[in-house]
Amino acid sequence: MNDEENTAGRPLNDCVAVVTGASRGAGRGIAVELGAAGATVYVTGRSTRERPADTYGQLLALSDMATVPGSIDDTADEVTRMGGRGIAVRCDHTNEEEVAALFARVEREAGRVDLLVNNAWGGHETFNGVFEAPFWEHPLANWDSMFDRGVRNHLVASRCAAPLMVRRKKGLIVTTTFWDRGHYLRGSLFYDLAKASMTRLAFGMAQDLKPHGVASVAVSPGWMRTEFVLAGHKTDEAHWQERPALSRTESPRYLGRAVAALAGDPKVMDRSGEVLRVADLAREYGFTDIDGRQVAAFEM
Predict the structure, then answer these.
(1) Which PANTHER family has this protein been placed in (predicted)?
(2) Active-site entry in 42, 56, 191, 254
(3) CATH number at residue 48
(4) Which stretch of DSSP H or E encloses residue 162?
(5) Which residues have C-beta within 8 Å of that of residue 296, sequence separation ≥ 6?
(6) pLDDT-derived band of residue 3, with 50, 70 and 90 as boundaries?
(7) In 24-84, where do the E strands start and end?
(8) In a domain, 66, yes or no
(9) Whole-number Å distance between alpha carbons of 152 and 150
(10) In angstroms, rounded to a whole number, what is the distance separating the alpha carbons of residues 25 and 300?
């Protein structure tokens, strides 16, 4: 393969990315697809092969799982296998010192950060199996997990990445969220507030970053077949099609392909401040999910 073909096949060869919360689920799907596009990906989170995160006891019990699936090491290895360069860095994104150390390391080793994907999310830590209930029946612990260990994580990482991008007048911050055209995400007021805050965070950051040539967008996937979703339906990625209830789902790598497309778009500044749905981006950029479908946008 010559250099021209290699560049075409790996459009993110020169991209240095940080993906937070990438042990599993959306973060893993994003990191893997960035790797497939040739990026160097710093894969961050708390779960390592030797020491899985220990704050998911309630969700594990509900899912009949003995241990939390995935690790930053597994994801980093998959990034490299797909053609990129995966670098696992254990980081508790609620800890400001650890986050600062992460970005100091990236700057020291790579010299820059081209892409930050804010995905670290603590909301699952307090999930009690109740999907729909009035706000007075949801535990107040959901506020702490979704805001202090969710929205705040995104802000802390962005504060560290932004100065590195502003200095070069180039970069992209992607915030993963869930958005259904502004409709109320019925069933959990805490979840609705947290996701709306993430969307607004991406918008607000875009305003401050625009004069410096740095873009910020929020990206909303549909219903993803994460490890926990598959476990909840007593199936796996190889057999999910046997579960009619999962017919509207998409793989986490569908979201990953959306992020990779945005990262490779030289006109991404034109989208800065927007909240973008993966299904819409699939049509615009012409990519599909891993099963060849362009999955329709999930709407409430």
Answers:
(1) DEHYDROGENASE/REDUCTASE SDR FAMILY MEMBER 1, DEHYDROGENASE_REDUCTASE SDR FAMILY MEMBER 1
(2) 191
(3) 3.40.50.720
(4) helix 152-168
(5) 222, 248, 279
(6) very low
(7) 40-45
(8) yes
(9) 5
(10) 21
Give me the residue label for tokens 């909240």.
275
CA 134 – CA 233 distance, rounded (Å): 25
Q: How many domains does the chain have?
A: 1
Cα–Cα dist 25/72, whole Å: 11
Cα 254 to the center of its chain, rounded Å: 11
DSSP element (H, E) containing 267: none
In angstroms, the CA 185 to CA 187 distance is: 6
Give a yes or no: residue 121 inside a domain. yes
Which strand ranges, in their side-by-side order, compose the sheet holding 16-19? 85-90, 40-45, 16-19, 115-118, 171-176, 214-220, 275-277
Q: Which of 233, 234, 230 is nearest to 251 (CA)?
A: 230
Domain that holds residue 131: 3-285
pLDDT tens, position by position, 115-157: 999 999 877 777 776 778 888 888 889 899 999 999 999 999 9
Residue 290 lies in a domain: no
Neighbours of 72 (CB within 10 A): 29
Residue 123 domain-assigned (yes or no)? yes
Q: Catalytic site residue 285? A: no
Cα(255)–Cα(146) distance, rounded to whole angstroms?
21
